[in-house]
């Protein structure tokens, strides 16, 4: 029997690989000789780098970059390997820091970057949140480091940012000049975009043109307006109603200047407003294509090939609810398995409202792992044991079916 285990992480508890290992441990208690292939996956959000590094036997690059408030912070990104976990192996990843000498990656390596690692809201104390001044410069530094290592394919995950600067800081880190009417470099932050007069790309990082960018984006907000970056995402980053209006006007002007400098007008493109307008920035400066995160991850880790010939696929995430069918990892895995006629089971930390929606889409069954009511801290601490026990019970039912 071949079983593929392809879960997302259980947030605040277990990485996707740790989830897969716990499920394998439970299954092997009752099906010791089954062929198990583990494929940690993600939907482009938090945990995507670790999941994809684990799934491919890649490595983590750690370095110090500029945080949202201009202070130096520790950040990281992943360089994918070419392997896949299976046959009981616990880990194919090299999780150590690799921030030393620049390596030659001209053989086709892929880097995976989460914007939040460098420019995330977690870097900004709640009382200091101010999207008028926060910058995405650190994300640009991660991209620059990957380019300098010879990377020619970068996957960038949006989300979790503390910024509303339209990717201006990222562009500046890549030596794209953003100038005011006096020819001076624009200061950091979303508010400064109101004074943008000229964009000079003549000295942009020379390797940008040789690199292809895929951007994981799971929102469809335009840049400006009632559904734009400032109105929808600004308040969680510290924007008051007055700031929202100021930032929205600044982003609109920013888009005008981008167009006046000969670049395509993407302000109404679905996802342009993602991550404080970073969606627009990556399209304008990186010539990137925005795609659903789960699609990028599934394709990159080769999920379709890895599940071929499986008798069962097991997926999961920390919470399965009515939103899971809208592009979350279990739904992406389910779709791939359905194309090959393979039954799929979902395991979750808990089941939320309308969790049965995924059953209507073809999931065979879903299982929560919490055995009884407990404080949240206990639930998180016991996640591995509860996962193992749940998987063991699923395996026992499978064996009954074999009899």
Computed Rg:
22 Å
Widest sheet, order of strands: 5-2-1-12-13-14
Portion of residues in beta strands equals 15-25%
Main CATH class of the largest domain: Alpha Beta
Uncertain stretches of 5 or more adjacent residues? 87-106
GO molecular function: glycerate kinase activity
Protein name: Glycerate kinase
Keywords: Kinase, Transferase
InterPro entries: Glyc_kinase_flavodox-like_fold, Glycerate_kinase, Glycerate_kinase_RE-like, Glycerate_kinase_sf
List keywords for this structure.
alpha/beta, six-stranded mixed β-sheet, Glycerate kinase, domain 2, 14 strands, elongated, 403 residues
Structure overview:
InterPro entries: Glyc_kinase_flavodox-like_fold, Glycerate_kinase, Glycerate_kinase_RE-like, Glycerate_kinase_sf. Its EC number is 2.7.1.31. The chain has about 400 residues and is α/β, with parallel strands linked by helices. It has two domains: about 120 residues, Rossmann fold (3-Layer(aba) Sandwich), CATH 3.40.50.10350; about 250 residues, Glycerate kinase, domain 2. It contains 14 helices and 14 strands. It has a six-stranded mixed beta sheet with strand order 5-2-1-12-13-14. It has a six-stranded mixed beta sheet with strand order 3-4-6-7-10-11, sandwiched between helices. α11 links the parallel β12 and β13. α1 packs across α14. The longest helix has 20 residues. The two termini are about 15 Å apart. About 5% of the residues have low confidence.
Please give the structural blueprint.
Layout (H helix, E strand, L loop, with lengths): L1 E4 L10 H13 L6 E4 L9 H9 L2 E8 L5 E8 L5 E2 L23 E5 H5 L17 H12 L4 E5 L10 H6 L3 E3 L18 E3 L11 E5 L12 H5 L7 H20 L13 H13 L2 E3 L1 H8 L2 H4 L5 E9 L8 H11 L4 E8 L5 H4 L4 E4 L7 H6 L1 H20 L1
Parallel strand pairs: 1-2, 1-12, 6-7, 7-10, 10-11, 12-13, 13-14
Antiparallel strand pairs: 2-5, 3-4, 4-6, 8-9
Helix pairs in contact: 1-14
């Amino acid at each position: 029997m071949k079983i593929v285990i392809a879960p997302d992480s259980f947030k605040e508890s277990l990485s996707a690989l740790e989830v897969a290992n716990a499920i394998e441990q439970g299954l092997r208690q009752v099906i010791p000789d089954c062929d198990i292939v583990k494929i940690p996956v993600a939907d482009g959000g938090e945990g995507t780098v670790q999941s994809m590094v684990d799934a491919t036997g890649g490595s983590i690059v750690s370095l110090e970059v500029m945080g949202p408030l201009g202070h130096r912070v520790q950040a990281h990104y992943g360089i994918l390997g070419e392997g896949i976990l299976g046959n009981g192996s616990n880990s194919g990843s090299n999780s150590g820091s690799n921030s030393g000498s620049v390596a030659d990656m001209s053989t086709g390596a892929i880097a995976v970057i989460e914007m939040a690692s460098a420019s995330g809201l977690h870097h900004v104390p709640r009382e200091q949140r101010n999207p008028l001044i926060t910058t995405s410069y650190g994300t640009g530094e991660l991209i620059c480091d990957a380019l300098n290592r010879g990377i020619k394919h970068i996957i960038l995950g949006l989300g979790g940012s503390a910024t509303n600067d339209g990717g201006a800081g990222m562009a500046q880190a890549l030596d794209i000049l953003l100038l005011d009417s006096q020819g001076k470099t624009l200061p950091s932050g979303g508010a400064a975009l109101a004074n943008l007069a000229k964009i000079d790309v003549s000295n942009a990082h020379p390797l940008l043109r040789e690199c292809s960018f895929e951007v994981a984006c799971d929102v469809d907000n335009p840049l400006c307006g009632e559904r734009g970056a400032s109105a929808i995402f600004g308040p969680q980053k510290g924007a008051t109603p007055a700031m929202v209006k100021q930032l929205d006007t600044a982003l609109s002007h920013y888009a005008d200047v981008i167009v006046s400098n000969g670049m395509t007008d993407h302000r109404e493109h679905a996802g342009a407003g993602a991550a404080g307008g970073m969606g627009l920035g990556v399209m304008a400066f990186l010539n990137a294509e925005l795609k659903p995160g789960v699609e990028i991850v599934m394709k990159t880790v080769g999920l379709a090939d890895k599940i071929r010939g499986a008798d069962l696929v097991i997926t999961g995430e920390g919470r399965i609810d009515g939103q899971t069918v809208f592009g979350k990892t279990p739904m992406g895995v389910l779709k791939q398995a359905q194309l090959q006629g393979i039954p799929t089971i979902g395991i979750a930390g808990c089941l939320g409202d309308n969790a049965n929606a995924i059953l209507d889409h073809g999931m065979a069954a879903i299982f929560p792992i919490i055995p009884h009511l407990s404080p949240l801290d206990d639930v998180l601490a016991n996640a591995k044991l509860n996962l193992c026990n749940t998987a063991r019970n699923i395996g026992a039912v499978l064996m009954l079916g074999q009899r």
